Amino acid sequence: MAHESHFTTEQLTERYEMSRKVRMWVLGAIVVGLLLVLAGLLTAEDPGAHHEAADHASLVDTPAGDVHKVQDHGHDEHADEAHGEHGGHHGPQHHIGKYTGALANFLLVNLYFLTLAMGAMFFMTVHRIGNGGWHTVFKRIPEAMSMWLPFAAVGLLIVGFFGEHLYDWIFVHEIGQDTLIDKKRAYLNVPFWAARGAIFVGVWTFAAWLMRKYSISQDNAGSVEGGLGIFKKMTTLSALFVIFFAISYTLFSIDWIKSLEPHWFSTIFGVYVFAGTFATASAVMGLILHFLRQQGYMGYTNDAHLHDCFKYAFAFTVFWGYIFIAQFLLIWYSNIPEETGYFDFRFAHYKTLFFVKIFACFFLPFIGLMMRNAKRKSQTFVVIGIIMILGHWIDLFVMIMPGAVGEHWHIGLTEIGFFVLYLGLFAFVVLRALSKANLVPIHHPYLDESLHHSTGAV
Amino acid sequence: MSSKSYLLGKFWHPDHVMDALRQLRDMGVKAQDVFGPFPIHEIEPLLDIKRTRLTVAAFCYGALGALTAITMISLIYGAIWPMNIGGKPFLPFPDYVPITFEMTVLFAAHGTILTFFIVSEYYPGKKEFLMDDRQTDDVFVIAIDKDKVAASAISDVNGVFTKTGAFEVTEKEV
Fold first, then answer.
1. Is residue A300 one of the residues assigned to a domain?
2. CA-wise closest residue to A336 among A56, A87, A48, A78
3. CA distances (Å), B152 to each of A154, A280, B148, in order?
């Protein structure tokens, strides 16, 4: 019908090409990030140097993990009383050396960009099984984002080899040193942990690769009808992926983030990580779409597509706030000493960041994206998107650092460097994946619906 | 009540409706409304419908709900009847969050839907009004206010209807 005439075939089969300027920016980010990381590593100080005696003492004094003993111990010690630590959370038990902070940061950036890729994966699979069509026209963006997964796998593999410098439960490897960790040995042991990590990231990477392969082979199918068989395969794959994702993402966040503090329990932790994941991934998707439109591509998308991307970002910031308060409130309200240690430690040493993240992940995006036009006008959604991106980073920082480096955190050259470096690498991988296929899945059955997408009266 | 007369074009297919609306817009004729069994989202810019202010109302109701919740809990637990629950402070702000959230949602949802009913004049026992009985089943109806079309243009409008695939072109007095 009439819709065919809106867009020429050339428009729909256009390909993205990295312009010189974009190449320079991406390369610049990688180089600057590398230099910052190197400078940060060279100027790294040993935070344990003057604390070592104290750390050592607490290790010897406290047969750590014996909860009752730790509690008694805590009541005796004035310093702990002052910090309000009831849960026996004295910071990590492992040695915090010169490069522990850098290693923890490496883990942080890898997890950060993995969450973006996984958010994109979840986005496209859940739309496929829910028969959502509106996103079809920019479907190649989440597909390209998911192409980051193998690189995240490499990063996590490297972190895994140095696991004992970050994870208390790997560090405390002798039975009898820590009762609580001993009781979790059946789950928290290195071979099982490594196998789980390999299977999860491996399956996700394979699913992402297969989704993209199907999607591109659909382009070559010649017609919508010819691609229907592939479409069905994509549906099956998506359904399987979403089921696997639900279980594996919870376990993955427990394995790689929560187990940094192995004494602590939270059954909602996986959902909490997922909330941040999806909110940020939606915002990033919207920003990439905006970037492509700025570069002169995707002329066939309209403001409604951006609007709905940021609707997701808006909705899931509320979800994040909900899960955040749910996790906090139940621990705070029920006065379980073993659990309050988690938040006590953060209040004692991470107070500013803790409140900054509540603002950056919830209040600012919630208020900033509430108005309809805020989701459609680049002046607002770019600013809020960047706030969300930084907020998600701080969120992960506050999740990871207390367990990895205790109170010896700082945000300096290494931290900024790693983020800039990985931003550059991520941008390169995503943009290269975008340039390798049509920007539009031309034979996708829902493409028509997507081209007609509208969010109502303007 | 004065009666109004409408020019009606009845269609089987939503794409034909869109075609007709585009041609009518080019002629400078504004459709009063389109009735159909399911929504056509992209139709709104063509109908030149003004943006609803219902969202503003929803925000106000939500804010009112949040304010009510905070005021009530503060008054009750802070001043009128302080209670010691688990040794927590008398004004535990984290505790407020779920209640405030629920009250915000409750007020926003009920306020918005009631406002919608009042504005659209929906009430129990209202006699429904249909341009064509089949509009709830499989027929799309474009209605044009006859008074707003110049007498000489009426045949052109009907011509557009026929040309774009209307299976029936009529008039209806309401």
1. yes
2. A87
3. 74, 57, 12
Walk along chain B (174 residues) and give the pLDDT tens digit of each residue: 467 888 899 999 998 999 999 999 888 888 888 999 988 877 887 887 888 889 999 999 999 999 999 999 999 988 898 888 777 888 888 888 889 999 999 999 999 999 999 998 888 888 877 888 888 899 999 999 888 888 888 888 889 999 998 898 988 887
* Inter-chain touch A333–B88, beta carbons under 8 Å: yes
Q: What interface predicted TM-score (ipTM) does this complex get?
A: 0.78
Separation of alpha carbons A145 and A304, rounded Å: 21
Q: Is A437 a domain residue?
A: yes
Domains of chain A: total: 1
pTM of the predicted structure, to 2 decimals: 0.85
Q: Is the dihedral of CA A222, A225, A227, A229 positive or negative?
A: negative
Render pLDDT for B3-51 as a digit per residue (tens, 0 to 9): 788 889 999 999 899 999 999 988 888 888 899 998 887 788 788 788 8
Interface test with A, best of B46, B97, B105, B163 (most A CBs within 10 A): B97
Cβ contact (<8 Å) for B41 and A335?
Answer: no
CB proximity B59 to A under 8 Å: yes
Residues in chain A with pLDDT < 50?
1-5, 51-87
Q: Is the dihedral of CA B107, B108, B114, B118 positive or negative?
A: positive
pLDDT at A216: 93
List, as ranges, residues 318-377 from A with C-beta within 8 Å of B. 322, 325, 328-329, 332-335, 370, 372
Given the candidates 3.40.50, 1.20.120, 3.30.70, 1.20.58, the CATH classification of the domain at B5-50+130-173 is: 3.30.70
Verify whether the Cβ–Cβ distance A370 to B59 is below 8 Å: yes
- What is the domain range of residue A25? 13-47+82-451
Option in B19, B50, B59 nearest A457 (CB):
B50
Q: Which residue of B has its CA nearest to A327?
A: B94
> Does B52 reach chain A within 8 Å, measured CB to CB?
yes
Partners of residue B6 on adjacent β-strands = B145, B172
State whether residue B51 sits within 8 Å of chain A by CB: yes
Task: Give the number of other Cβ atoms within 10 Å of residue A17's Cβ.
Answer: 11
- Provide the Cα torsion A68, A73, A79, A80; round to 10°: 0
In a domain, A249, yes or no: yes
